[in-house]
């Protein structure tokens, strides 16, 4: 008799963003005349840049002719893209990553969820808190993290690395034994960063304890200030303890094209098991590569004119971030992030929970954000706003938020 | 201390098709002047049809403009595609599948490998044998199927549903308890099919034993004869015991575009756990949908002119299949399949193993196929040839194969 995977019954039915979508639906049905501005889900709004569009058209034409048609590609990605990534994202900044350590995928979400297949089922996991819910949910569905404690809003066996204003969003090193550590910098959802020295402490801890770090660098392209690491491999010894995941989604507006990559260094070996070989085996067995035409678009990101056009889009979003942050400061709100990331992390007014704040903003000024507690217990009392809307909508949203605060 | 997933050490390093690729590489280096014809990997050779190319260009242009740009899409696929699939592949042939039972993905390989997350870790699995290696390897990497027995070429806890000439490629129903049954018809690698009555026996067995059937219908579009089910849902009660996986890869040449889908009926419930809801949760958590432009191409497959153009390509490949089968029969070889599938399943000469035959064909006539034993123990003594090459190469390959047999 077939037994279903009972880990699915351990987890609530709806994913954070589905819950938000439902709340918006309900509100819209009751208030069809109200125009909502969404600074919730971190989706881009600017279309693909001309250099990418051109590369896509060209790749489509290649698929129309027998001589240039491409069927199954290498599961880890075409060499032209793996080499472009290794060269431009690593070698050009003095890091020695090689193309066989780069694995192209259909996005950072899939990679973050699938990389857990590389470690043992009973691994002790530590995660930055608050954090992107996929890290937690994907582990629960596999049978990790213990039991859900509704009162604490915590999983019993997950080690939460608390980040909040009190510790300046720099979580303390774990005091217990942990096998795997999930870190994300620039951080989603707080928009905060670590310095290279601060990140080095995590690398040193992992090396000393033989832990693995899964480093999510999906927002690396938004770093504006010097001294903030773009890659964990800038830290000494990281190639012996860390996997890095990156995305084209936020960097180049590929949320609808689906492209990302993971770097799994050849030096990453635990008890004679080499993670580079294991990930190659995993991807070869369970994945068939990203589409050729999408990989060509990824390749074009590193060439002119797309390269400059992409930088202009990032500047556009970062100006939105600045406007939101300054606008909220003007009315006395406490805000974090937004300087090296497209996220603003807002402290909710005293006594107002994250979800209460969500409801109030929706009801009073029709602005949608994401409740901080949706990202974990340390997010309670915070709220995430994204810089990914258009300039016009961002301006309007700032006015509305200021109105909320002045009432 | 990080512990790697030790299931990775239970499985041989190289995937079947990688081993073949290495053998070809070695041969080519030693014989750079010899031209090899590949009837091995089941990859298409005809370019995408004009109707698909047009749809791709149009979708790319939509991504260039703010008004029509699409970022994150629904994880289970856009409604326009889910509805086209439900309508054309099911409702039009009298099956009541609804679009919310259709989940669009980046290909049948990913789905077949990922669907196992829906059932318990200690499930007893039965699989058609020979079979597409991904079914086995993906389960082993998760910790199922017991130990590998080198002598028998079998996994100790996998129930092999033997298919060979002696039982007319119709495996017997299991005599032991099984929880999950993997079936593939038209079959890869044998190219053989079941009648509707034969398939109904499997559905009846599954219903009686509360087993789940994973039905791989990736080659459905190649069925030429009447009376052969295109979908398992043609069988009475299948919506209560079966998931069906289909692909655009072989049907429409999407091996490089990456698009497939799984049908998970709402009626599919085991011990109060609903598999439709579970799969929705799985895909929402660990996947971000197929690219918008690729889904538009999938949609175009159901519209003219692409629909007719795709049928013409299938006829082209099926004529190749006929030529290979007839050509081999002429020289007295024993051949199966090829009538309703793009695969010809060839009995190797007496006393010649699958891999020996591979080596002989490569050495003597430079034709590459796939050793049957690579698909499982019942494949020993057989050899798979595909109809996916060009007409010219297929003609040349037939001549060379005939030469091999006449020497």
TrEMBL record, chains A, B:
Ranges of residues in domain Aminotransferase class I/classII large: 35-401
Superkingdom of source: Bacteria
EC number(s) stated in the UniProt entry for this protein: 2.6.1.-
Pathway: Amino-acid biosynthesis; L-lysine biosynthesis via DAP pathway; LL-2,6-diaminopimelate from (S)-tetrahydrodipicolinate (aminotransferase route): step 1/1
Keywords, in A-Z order: Aminotransferase, Pyridoxal phosphate, Transferase
Enzyme class: transferase
A Pfam family: Aminotran_1_2
Catalytic reaction equation(s): (2S,6S)-2,6-diaminopimelate + 2-oxoglutarate = (S)-2,3,4,5-tetrahydrodipicolinate + L-glutamate + H2O + H(+)
InterPro entries: Aminotransferase_I/II_large (IPR004839), DapL/ALD1 (IPR019942), NHTrfase_class1_PyrdxlP-BS (IPR004838), PyrdxlP-dep_Trfase (IPR015424), PyrdxlP-dep_Trfase_major (IPR015421), PyrdxlP-dep_Trfase_small (IPR015422)
A molecular function (GO) term: L,L-diaminopimelate aminotransferase activity
Reported cofactor(s): pyridoxal 5'-phosphate
Record-stated family: Belongs to the class-I pyridoxal-phosphate-dependent aminotransferase family.
Cited PANTHER family: AMINOTRANSFERASE
Protein name (Swiss-Prot/TrEMBL): Aminotransferase
Gene source species: Ruoffia tabacinasalis
């Amino acid at each position: 008799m077939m037994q279903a995977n009972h880990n699915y019954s351990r987890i609530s039915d709806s994913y954070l963003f589905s819950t938000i979508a439902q709340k918006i639906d309900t509100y819209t049905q009751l208030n069809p005349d109200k125009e909502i501005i969404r600074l919730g889900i971190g989706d881009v709004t600017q279309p693909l840049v001309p250099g990418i569009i051109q590369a896509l058209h060209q790749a489509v034409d290649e698929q129309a002719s027998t001589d240039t048609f491409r069927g199954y590609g290498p599961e880890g990605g075409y060499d032209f893209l793996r080499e472009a990534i290794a060269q431009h994202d690593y070698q050009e900044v003095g890091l020695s990553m090689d193309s066989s350590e780069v694995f192209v995928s259909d996005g950072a979400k899939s990679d973050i969820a699938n990389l857990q297949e590389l470690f043992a089922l009973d691994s002790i996991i530590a995660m930055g808190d608050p954090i992107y819910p996929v890290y937690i949910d994907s582990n629960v569905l596999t049978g990790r993290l213990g039991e859900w404690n509704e009162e604490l809003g915590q999983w019993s066996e997950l080690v939460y690395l608390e980040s909040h204003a009190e510790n300046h969003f720099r979580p303390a090193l774990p005091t217990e034994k942990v096998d795997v550590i999930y870190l994300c910098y620039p951080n989603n959802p707080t928009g905060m960063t670590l310095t290279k020295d601060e990140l080095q402490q995590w690398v040193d801890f992992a090396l000393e304890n033989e832990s693995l770090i899964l480093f999510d660098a999906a927002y690396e392209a938004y770093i504006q200030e010097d001294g903030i690491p773009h890659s964990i491999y800038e830290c000494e010894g990281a190639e012996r303890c860390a996997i890095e995941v990156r995305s084209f989604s936020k960097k180049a507006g590929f949320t609808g094209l689906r492209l990302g990559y993971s770097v799994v260094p050849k030096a990453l070996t635990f008890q004679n098991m080499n993670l580079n070989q294991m990930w190659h085996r995993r991807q070869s067995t369970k994945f068939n590569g990203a589409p050729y035409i999408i990989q060509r678009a990824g390749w074009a990101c590193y060439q002119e004119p797309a390269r400059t056009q992409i930088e202009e889009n990032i500047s556009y979003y970062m100006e939105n971030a600045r406007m939101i942050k300054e606008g909220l400061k003007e009315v006395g709100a406490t805000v974090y992030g937004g300087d090296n990331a497209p996220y603003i992390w807002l402290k909710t007014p005293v006594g107002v929970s994250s979800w209460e704040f969500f409801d109030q903003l929706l009801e009073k000024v029709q602005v949608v954000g994401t409740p901080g507690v949706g990202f974990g217990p340390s997010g309670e009392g915070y709220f995430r706003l994204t810089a990914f809307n258009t300039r016009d909508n961002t301006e309007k949203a700032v006015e509305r938020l200021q109105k909320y605060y002045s009432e």
